[in-house]
Each structure stands twice: as structure tokens, then as C-alpha cells.
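Extended Data, record ABC transporter substrate-binding protein
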Amino acid sequence: MRRSALAAVAAIGSASLLLSACSKADDNGGDGNKSAGANAATKGVVNASTQKGGTVTYEYSDVPDSFDPGNTYYAYMYNLSRLYARPLMTFQPGPGEEGNKLVPDLAEKAGEPSDGGKTWTYKIRSGLKYQDGTAITSKDVKYAVERSNFARDVLSLGPNYFQQFMEGGKAYKGPYKDKSPEGLKSIETPDDTTIVFKLNRPFQEFDYLVATPQTAPVPQAKDTGIDYVKSIVSSGSYKFQSYDEGKQAVLVKNENWDPKTDPLRKQYPDKIVVKLKVNAETIDQDVQAGDAIDLGGTGVQAATQAKVVNDASLKANTDNTYGGRLVYMAINNQVAPFDKVECRKAVEYAVDKVSVQTAEGGPIRGDVATTVLPPDITGYAKADVYATNGNKGDVAKAKEQLKACGKTTINTNISARSDRPQEIDAATAIIASLKKVGINASLKQYPSGKYFTDYAGVPTFDKKQNIGLHMMQWGADWNSGYGFLQQILHGDAIGASGNTNLSYLNDKQINEMLEKAIATEDDATRNGLYAQIDKRAMDLAALVPLTYFKVLLYRPAGYTNLVSTAAFSGQYDYLNIGTTKK
């Protein structure tokens, strides 16, 4: 849910990135943010500092899907988890597109492909240790992948790429059911520092796949399945001091983290506090007061936006950028009558996208969208299959499609996340548009932490509740058409729960084109296929693109090393944020 042709894979110097700053902090306690200017963190590092100590506080309006690195799929948790969970590869701290560059993390260097991209070999760094001082081995990385991808009845929240692409992946039942010592045979660990992935078909972007937190090591002896979230064993620069489910997590320095084995992390603050279930407006107030960072990274609320964009001094502390994200409404083609393409097309024509854009906060929060792929994702091609005058919908064309579907009216429900006010407002605007053409939709609200596991992502629940429409926001897992499209359009992404393919689309042609694309070595050919997949999805009316999301973040004074990264949807990179406050 996160991320040009493949971004360059480059090694990174220990301090060079964070010190190439556009604004320098006063290490004696100045805030450094006031003079940085609007969008400064999209161009460089704001308030750069090597000052250690203090507490960095994050606040979130709900609860995350999970702190477990193998059981999460929100961009902000991918971002945060790197503090305590080191994947094989990760993204370098850098502004904008610089942040899309892959760099080795647990691994010594990028993967070595062979057999046309069907086999990938990684060597992990020597001297790596967990928080208890025990050695991290390649077997722990293998186990982490096995538990996160193959025990979907226990851990269902993350993507399942490995399950789909590993040789024998469909048959392997995961480590909780399969007690054989060798585990999944297509992941080999010939020694404690080597791991080899044998795929069932070529995967030319595999380095991006191992950058997910699912490759962060987990010691099998310490794994407690779904309860592992209560006692996560750290491989990063911070470890959990306490975890109060649904309320707060506190991280402190991991004394067994060795900077010699880690050119990325700096371990600046003494403590990191994550506060949960904080009112969204309260978060805005705390951010403006310099007391917190908005963990979710989706931007300020409507009232705060109106305040900051109309005050030059406040606007100077904001960052407004694309994040490789699409705000859209999935049309569930398994819920009647949206199993008929004409009924789905009626929805496409009915929606007044300008009213949705206005409800989300206007152009500063996103441009009107007409494609599945956003313009800042490789493979995008400009198109508008359901063009309407001024993007305000076309009642006549919508009714024409409704008639072709054999309907004059439709009664359905639309799901949205209860803790996301802008999503609720957008859904409300859509309901008004649909009503004009005879589609009566009622709003159903569910918490974001359970949206995919218990509600929108559960096919049986959707059918029972007659939820034919789902509000959704999606960011690329990595910056390519495959990294964006696979988990929301491929039939293999559909499961009993935890779905992100909320259209429940299982189209043979799209599935085959996605597989062909990821096996294609030539960048231009691969990107051309992504554009074709986008068009096919729109021809099938699988979803209604609403806006190409733009984030509007407020930079809290006193926090250091703030940089907005494309790798995590324009959020600040959480890896090395510090504070000048004592």
C-alpha cells in the first residue's frame, strides 16, 4: 500500500543523506522549522540535526491494523516498523522521489537474480543481533516470510506476494500447521547469512518485494502467532518497552543494535511514544503546538487546512505533495446487481467527482482522477473512459446504463472508515450524486483498524450486508504499475478476509497481463502492459477513480530530520526523526 523505471539500487553512506539538509536545527533547542518554507520537506531535510535525547511522540486517530511487521499493510506502519524491524531491503531517507531508491538494510547488497529472475539470492550482514543479544540468521528471515504469507488463517493482514510467487507456495500450509523442520523448501538457507528464494516464475522487481516488513527476521522460538504483537523481538534501533493494546506503545533504544551493522538508522531520541485513539482534531492541535507527529500521515483535518492555507506564516510549515495514491470507490462485482458491468458503468457516469474533490478539501488535497494509476506511478497513461462535462457526472448516461442493466433503481450500501472524516464526507457526496440517477446508497461506517479484516475485506460480510460500494485509498507497494495494481486488481489477492481487492475482480485477462508484465525484463514493454491493465480495469468499471491524492502535512516545531518521502505516500520518513526538546 505504498510506492520511472525501477528505482536505482544504491548503497548509502552513514550520514550523507540526513546532513544534506535545507534547514539546520539549533542543537541547543531552537526549532529551525519556522524559516524552512512551504514544501521544504519535499525538497530536502528540514531541521537537520544529530542531536540525541528527548521523546518523539506520534498520535493516531484509531488503532493500526497491527504493530507486527508480518501482519500489517498500512503505509504508516511500514514506515514506523523500520524502527524495530529491519527488512532485507528498504528505502533510503530522502525527499520526494529520492525516497523511492532501494538500499540494502538487513542485506549486504541488492539481490542477485539468476535463472531469468526466478531465483534471488541475498547475503545478510554479519554481526546482526536481536534486542536480547542473540544472533540474527537467514533462517529467521525465512521463518518471517513463512509466518506472514502462508498462515493466512492466523496472520491475514499483509500482502501475500510470496505465497503467490514462491515455488510450492500454494501447497505449503505455513509454520503453525506444517511442523516439518525444512519449512517451505523453495526458500533455502545454506548458511546463517545466505537466503535463496526460488520462484515459480520470473519476478523482475523482487528487490521491492523483500523491502516489505515481512522479511524482517522473527525468531521462531519467540513467535506466538497472533499474540506476537504483544512481545515483538526487535532487530532495529528501538525495542518495545511497553504495549497497551488500543491505547499506547512505547519504544526505547535497543542497546544491542550496532550502528556498525546499520548505515541507515541514527537512534536519535531516547524514547518514542505512539498514542492511539486520539481525536483527529486534537492531533492537529498537538502537531501545531509542536507536541506530536500525525502517525497516519494523511494530513490535517478540514478546519485546520482552512486555517493554515490562509495564513502565510502557518502555510510556511506545511508540505503538500502527491504520494503515489489514488482515492477511489471500489464497485463490488460479487454483490448484485453490480455483477453486471452495465450497473457498474451507471455508477461511473453518476458520480460528480468535483463534489467529491470539494468534500476532501479541494485541489490542495488532490486532482480529479480518471485512471487507476496515479500520474506519479510508472506505467500511468492519461485516459478518461467515462468522461463527463467538467467531471461533474452525467445523469442521462448513467440512467442509460442503468436501463441496459435492466434496472430503474438500485438499493445498496457504501462502506467507509469511521475515523476518517474526509472519507465520510466524500462518501456523502457520492451518495448525493447516485441518488440523482436512482441509485440509493446508505452509508456504513467501520473502523480503519478492522476495515479489511472484519468488514469491507470480507466477501461473506459484504454480501450479507449488501455492501456494493467501498470507499478506498490506495498507494503503491512500490513505484511501479505492478506494485500499485496487483493487490487491488489481481484475483489471487482475494481471500476469505483481509482483502484489498475490494472490487473482488478476478478477470483472466488482467491476471495474465499482470503476470506477463512482472516477468518482462524490458522496462518500456513492462510499463506499456501496466497502461493496458489500467484501461481494461476501467472498461470493466471495476472502480471509480475519484482523486489523485495529495497530502497536506503540518511540520511540528522542534522535531528534527523531517523529510517527505514518496516511498511512504508523502509521509515524513520516521526512521531518523529526533527532537530538540529536552
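Summary. The first strand starts at residue 55 and ends at 59.
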